Amino acid sequence: MLHSPAMPADSLVPLEEMVARLERLLSGSPADATDLFWIELRRGQESTEKKRLDSYDYTGRTILLRVRESGRIGWHHTSAYDLSDLENGLRQALAQARLSPPAPSPLPADVSPLPEVSALYDPEISRMGPARARELVQKLAAKNETVRLGWSEGRVAVLTSQGRKRTAEMTAGWIEVVCGQSPGAGRAATAARSLAGLGLPALFERARQRSGPPDVVPPPGGPVPVVLSQEAAAALVDLVNRNALTSDSFHDGTSFLKDGLNAQVFHRAINLRDDATDSRGLPLPFDLAGVAKRPVDLIAGGVALTPAVDERLAQATGLPRTPHLVAPDEAIATNLFLLPGTSPDGELFRRADGGLWIGSLARLECFEPRTLRFRCVARGVRRITGGVPGRSVPDLVWEDDLRTLLSRVLGVGSEPVPVATSWRLLGATTAPLLALDGVAGLRIAGA
User: Residue 145 and residue 185: Cα distance in Å, rounded?
Assistant: First the structure.
């Protein structure tokens, strides 16, 4: 994805002012084709923790200028937005194009109309700052509870010499609540485009209901069934996305799906759909090339159908291009849904009786992308007894093969929750409870 240096956290450039400058730059471009992209964002996070090590306040801007001249491509990116700086950047992009090798002919432009989506912008989040966020989380949290509240505000514009013009102002908020400080502590998280959409009373209630007793017992021995919270399931879905479904993972050959499309790779209950038109997943009507978003099934019935496809991957493989561009040559599904099942959530606990409930996954890393082997710390763990979470269990180190795990699905829950991922402003990963069978890679942390 595009990145830019941090700027003073004062104010964002007004959308109308930036669009006017880009339109003037576009009208004066001598290139055969010109694409201009601007994204500016302000984001921050506050917590109730005493040291507040995870608190921050950041503002950043990226402007990308891409030209095609005599069949050659050049581009330049900058954080400077004065018209003279933009004109200089355009000259540098043209100079790079003259030195670049010939590029393949571009694919036909997608001219689909933008979908109707729910509100993208919330004034309450736009007014959020460190002091206001700190006051809000301290008011919400009880004495033994930790709250992390994050917010983001952004402005985006895409203009092309082919006549495409897309603009948007967006906000996003995310929150995580931890009730208690011992193993088995209740945890819950969510994300939304508005502060009201976070549903704070219900979120706190969900976290408190997940809290286990303060005394702990060891986990059951041998392979056990596991029920993952929506937050933990979303983390594993995000891991699959980043390591197997991005265009980059196909370009560099690390995706295990590179030679496995249209094959059964997971259990039939696993259905992954990217849908930036669904209000639950932080909607967005266009990708960062200005192409209209639409629902795209990536995995259906456990069968891998497509990754996110940029123009280069489309030309190399013949796969249809998908509306997932986040950079000039990088496509990522940023509004991913693990589609819910039909069984009530309580049924999953009955199927997993004698196993474990896992509230969240920390320090999650994929150390072997081609097999999706991962390592993490499972927190908020409780034994499932009589079809309900019971006694607390110490935090567990979990090392396993996600390809195998997602082939041993006991069931998928019916109540999905959106959870913030690294894309934050651009979308969320939404997942219901997920029950897995025969999980053996768990051990007590430090043992």
Answer: 9
Rg (the chain; Cα; Å):
23
Which pLDDT does position 52 carry in this prediction?
65
The DSSP symbol for 351 reads: H
What is the spatial distance between Cα 174 and Cα 428, in angstroms, rounded to a whole number? 10
Residues lower than pLDDT 70 in the chain: 1-10, 51-54, 447
Three-state DSSP at 15 gives: helix
Question: Do the beta carbons of residue 10 and residue 392 sit within 8 Å?
Answer: no
Cite the DSSP H helix spans in 51-199.
83-99, 123-126, 130-140
Give strand ranges (E) for 127-185.
145-160, 165-179
The secondary structure element, H or E, covering residue 409 is strand 409-412
**HSE-CB of 103 using CA atoms within 13 angstroms:** 19
What contacts 231, CB < 8 A, 6 or more positions away?
187, 188, 189, 359, 360, 361, 417, 419
C-alpha 62/C-alpha 157 separation (Å) is: 11
Three-state SS annotation for 302-327: CEECCCCCCHHHHHHHCCCCCCCEEE
Q: Can you tell me the distance from the alpha carbon of 219 to that of 224, in angstroms, rounded to the nearest whole number?
A: 9
Cα–Cα distance, 232 to 362 (Å, whole number): 9
CB 73 within 8 A of CB 100: yes
pLDDT, tens only, 174-212: 999 999 988 999 999 999 999 999 999 999 999 999 999
In the three-class reduction of DSSP (H, G, I as helix; E, B as strand; rest coil), residue 323 is classed as coil
Residue 384 near residue 353, CB atoms below 8 Å: yes
Ramachandran area for residue 442 (φ above 0: left; ψ -120 to 50: alpha; else beta): beta
Hey, what are 103's tokens? 């590029």
Are 310 and 304 a contacting pair, CB within 8 Å?
no
pLDDT tens per residue, range 114-161: 999 989 999 999 999 989 999 998 888 988 899 999 999 999 999 999
C-beta of residue 268 within 8 angstroms of C-beta of residue 410 = no
Q: Tokens 């180190």 sit at which residue? A: 397
